[in-house]
Amino acid sequence: MPEYLADYDRFGLPPDEALRRVIARAAADPQFLADLDALFFKVQPMLAERLDCEAPHFFVMARDGVGNAWGVYVDPELAPTRGTPWVMWEHEDDALNYVADDTEQFFARLLDFCAYHRWSSAGCSSAFPVQVRPICSRRDPWSGCRRARCRPDRRFEPGDAVRRRPRRAASTRRTLVLG
Amino acid sequence: MDDLRAWFEAATAGGRAAQPSATSFPLAATLAAEASIPGAVAEARAFYAAACFDWGGAWVHRQRIGSREVFFVHVGTDGDGGWLEVFDDTGAFLLAASLDGTRLVWEPRDVARARIESGEPPP
Fold first, then answer.
1. Partner-chain contact B59 A37, CB within 8 Å
2. C-beta atoms surrounding A81 within 10 Å
3. Within-domain flag for A162
4. Would you call A125 and B21 a contact, using CB atoms and an 8 Å cutoff?
């Protein structure tokens, strides 16, 4: 049985029972793991540095299978006021992108994205349909962050909403998140 | 085997087969139930999953082609490169291919797998 739960617990993150249940079941139920895998959510909690992502507050929960990673952003200084959002690390741009406020919202959006946009006969295959904003990027002079000092920015403002990105023709480049 | 080759060549024609697609190859509807996957097929998936750990992923599909039921491992990546391994319904290896952009190139399995390490595209 994979040691996903032990790996997750070793992070010592703030309690998130919903996420912990998902990881526990993924470790114990091969079909559940495969079902998540089919959603481009390849469960494997790990430190971001294992993927050469130098964002110490980003904790990887899964890879998407094409080079990017999903996880939670936990900055102890900011978490009490700004929460611990789900983000995606987009490897091409080496940027963390906000995805959802919490675990329930994240999986709802993942299911929506995969069930309707990616795998439907009408959907597009390579554009992430959710409007996301980079919360840090080493190439973003506005945030002024370095990779090792990544900090969230305005995504935490109240009223932030995820908007649909207009459907577009399939890209020739496989990129899930467009910041 | 020609019928199998022809089916995969037709299924991948015109697309970038290293990238999972909603409308072409491989379709999510053919993802295999985990309990049905033979050990050898699961091993192939595990090989690619480990080899492409941070730049790709492997999925097992089950497909009826003519009178045959086959499993195939599809390896997608963040670029043009990908791989395909085809097995019969008992898990016996049948075919391997390297994917390169819109091309599908049938190759010996060891040759195809070696391209992961070498990074060399198929001829």
1. yes
2. 7
3. no
4. yes
Q: Which domain holds residue A103?
A: 48-156
What burial class does residue A34 get, using C-beta atoms within 10 Å of its C-beta: 0-12 exposed, 13-18 middle, 19+ buried? buried
Categorize the per-residue pLDDT at B38 as very low, low, confident or very high, splitting at 50, 70 and 90: very high
Instruction: Report if residue B9 sits inside a domain.
Output: yes
What does the pLDDT average to over B57-64? Answer: 92
CA B91 to each of CA A133, B11, B85, B111: distance values in angstroms, whole numbers, following the listed order: 44, 21, 11, 20
Mean of all residue pLDDT scores within chain A: 69
Q: Give a yes or no: residue A120 inside a domain.
A: yes
**Nearest-CA distance from A34 to chain B in Å?**
7
Domain ranges, residue B79: 2-118
Number of domains observed in the structure of chain B: 1
Q: How far is B54 from chain A (nearest CA, A)?
A: 5
For residue range A36-60, what is the model confidence (pLDDT) as tens digits?
988 889 999 999 989 888 888 899 9
Residues in chain A with CB shorter than 8 Å from the CB of B49 are 42
Tell me how close the Cα of A26 comes to any Cα of chain B, in angstroms: 13
Element of type H or E holding A125: none
Q: Which tokens hold the place of B89?
A: 């319904």
B22–chain A nearest CA distance, Å:
4
- Strand positions, DSSP E, B3-121: 56-65, 68-77, 81-88, 93-100, 103-106
Nearest CA in chain A to B54: A67
On the question of pLDDT at A176 being above 60, the answer is no
Angstrom distance (rounded) from CA B95 to CA B72:
9
The contact set of A with B (CB < 8 A) is 30-31, 33-34, 37-38, 40, 42, 50-52, 63-68, 91-92, 117-126, 170, 172, 174
Q: Number of structural domains, chain A?
A: 1
Flag if B23 and A51 touch (Cβ within 8 Å).
no
